[in-house]
Write a structure and sequence with these properties.
This protein has 1 helix and 3 strands, in the order E-E-E-H. The chain has 65 residues and is of the alpha+beta class.
Length: 65
């Protein structure tokens, strides 16, 4: 299951909170996720409007991720 979570880090372009793209692993025996993995960061305001600046800023922010 994929989801999104509000993250404490701020967008390097506009200083609004980033969203995390999260992959949740669930088990048939549990109602709760058994594991979560962050698959990326995003912010719907800057990412589509300034894609080149976003990519460059996030590579610096995340160490090339």
């Amino acid at each position: 299951m994929n989801g999104e979570l509000l993250h404490g880090d701020l967008c390097p372009l506009c200083r609004m909170p980033l969203l995390l793209d999260v992959l949740e692993v669930r088990s048939a025996q549990s109602d709760f996720p058994t594991a979560e993995r962050v698959t990326g960061y995003r912010y719907p305001g800057c990412q589509p409007d300034r894609p080149e600046q976003w990519t460059e800023a996030m590579q610096s922010h995340c160490g090339g991720a």
